[in-house]
C-alpha cells in the first residue's frame, strides 16, 4: 500500500463498539492502528493493513503515540468499573480520567503537531447528554442538561473536542448514540446492555425482569449499524465536523414487547417454553433515565452521510440470541 493510504487510529479496538468498528474497517482498503489494553484480534480475511497496538491509554504519552501520524482517529474507549453496567458514581476520578482525560490528551497531542493537515476525530457520545427528554423526540437541536455523571462526563469530553475544532486543531465530530446492542457470528466483545443481559437470563431459563410496566420505549440500534455509522462519519469530515449528530433507527420500541420477542426467540432456540417477562421493583441505584422514553430523529445524519440502519430489530435479536446461545454452549462444554 502506498503512503497515500489513510491511517485510521481506532481507540478502544477490543470494546463492544470498537470491535465492531474494527470488523467494519477490516473490509476497507485502509491502514488501521487498533489500540486497546489487550491486543485486538485481527478479523479474518481483512483487506485493511491492520497494526495491533496494546497500550494503557491513561499512561503518560500513550495517546500521543497511539495517534502519531494518524489521518483519522475514531474514539470508542468506554470506562466501566468492575460492575456489569456502565453506571458511574459522582466524583469517580478514574472514570473522569478515561472519559474526559483521554480526549484532553488527544487534543494536546494533535495540537502539538503544529501546521499541516488536520486530523479528523470522531467521538462516540450518548443521547443522554441532552438530559431528560420529557418524552420528546431528540433531533440534536435541544439544549444539553445531562442528569447523570456518565452523561456529564461525555458532554465535557465532547465540548473539549469541539472547542479544539473551533481553534483549528482538528476536524472534530461527535456521534451521539442511543441504546446500542447485539452480537453476531463474528463478535469478539461482550455487550453488557440490557437486551443481551436479558437474553442471557432467558437462555439460563430465568425470567426476564423489567423495572417498569414494559411501556418504556427505547431506540435500539444494532451494533454493526453503529459501526457503519462511525465509518461513514469518518469519511465525511467536511460535511460533519464542528458539531454533534444523533444516530438512531428513528423507531422507539416498548421494552416489554422487545423482551417478549427475546423470550420467544430463545424458546425457538432451546425448544422450551418462553420464560416469563415480569415487572419487578426497581433497585435503589435506578436512575430517572431508566424510566424515560428515548426516541431519536437521526434524519440530519442520514442526509449528511447516506447512512441508514440495515438490520431489522427481529434479525438483530435473532443473531444476538444465536451468538449468546453459542457462547453459553461453549462455556458449558
UniProtKB/TrEMBL annotation:
Positions in coiled-coil regions: none
Source organism superkingdom: Bacteria
Gene3D superfamilies assigned to the protein according to its UniProt record, in alphabetical order: NAD(P)-binding Rossmann-like Domain
Domain NAD-dependent epimerase/dehydratase stretches: 8-248
Database matches in SUPFAM superfamilies: NAD(P)-binding Rossmann-fold domains
Family annotation (Pfam families): Epimerase (PF01370)
InterPro entries linked: Epimerase_deHydtase (IPR001509), Lipid_A_modif_metabolic_enz (IPR050177), NAD(P)-bd_dom_sf (IPR036291)
Protein's name according to its UniProt entry: SDR family epimerase/dehydratase
Amino acid at each position: 500500500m502506498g503512503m497515500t493510504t489513510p491511517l485510521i487510529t481506532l481507540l478502544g479496538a477490543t470494546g463492544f463498539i470498537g470491535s465492531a468498528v474494527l470488523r467494519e474497517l477490516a473490509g476497507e482498503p485502509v491502514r488501521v492502528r487498533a489500540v486497546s489494553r489487550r491486543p485486538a484480534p485481527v478479523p479474518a480475511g481483512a483487506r485493511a493493513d491492520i497494526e495491533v497496538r496494546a497500550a494503557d491509554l491513561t499512561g503518560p504519552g500513550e495517546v500521543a503515540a497511539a495517534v502519531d501520524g494518524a489521518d483519522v482517529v475514531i474514539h470508542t474507549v468506554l470506562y466501566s468499573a468492575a460492575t456489569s453496567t456502565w453506571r458511574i458514581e459522582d466524583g469517580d476520578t478514574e472514570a473522569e480520567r478515561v472519559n474526559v482525560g483521554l480526549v484532553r490528551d488527544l487534543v494536546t497531542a494533535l495540537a502539538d503537531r503544529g501546521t499541516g493537515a488536520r486530523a479528523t476525530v470522531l467521538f462516540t457520545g450518548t443521547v443522554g447528554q441532552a438530559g431528560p427528554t420529557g418524552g420528546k423526540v431528540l433531533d440534536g437541536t435541544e439544549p444539553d442538561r445531562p442528569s447523570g455523571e456518565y452523561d456529564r462526563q461525555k458532554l465535557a469530553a465532547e465540548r473539549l473536542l469541539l472547542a479544539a475544532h473551533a481553534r483549528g486543531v482538528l476536524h472534530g465530530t461527535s456521534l451521539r448514540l442511543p441504546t446500542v446492542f447485539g452480537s453476531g457470528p463474528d463478535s469478539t466483545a461482550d455487550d453488557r446492555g440490557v437486551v443481551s443481559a436479558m437474553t442471557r437470563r432467558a437462555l439460563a431459563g430465568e425470567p426476564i425482569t423489567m423495572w417498569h410496566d414494559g411501556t418504556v420505549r427505547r431506540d435500539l440500534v444494532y451494533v454493526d449499524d453503529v459501526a457503519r455509522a462511525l465509518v461513514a462519519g469518518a469519511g465525511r469530515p467536511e460535511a460533519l465536523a464542528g458539531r454533534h449528530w444523533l444516530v438512531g433507527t428513528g423507531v422507539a420500541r416498548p421494552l416489554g414487547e422487545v423482551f417478549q420477542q427475546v423470550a420467544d426467540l430463545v424458546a425457538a432456540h432451546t425448544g422450551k417454553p418462553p420464560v416469563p417477562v415480569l415487572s419487578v421493583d426497581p433497585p435503589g441505584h435506578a436512575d430517572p433515565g431508566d424510566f424515560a422514553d428515548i426516541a431519536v430523529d437521526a434524519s440530519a445524519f442520514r442526509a449528511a452521510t447516506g447512512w441508514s440502519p440495515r438490520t431489522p430489530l427481529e434479525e438483530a435479536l435473532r443473531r444476538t440470541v444465536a451468538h449468546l446461545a453459542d457462547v453459553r454452549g461453549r462455556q458449558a462444554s
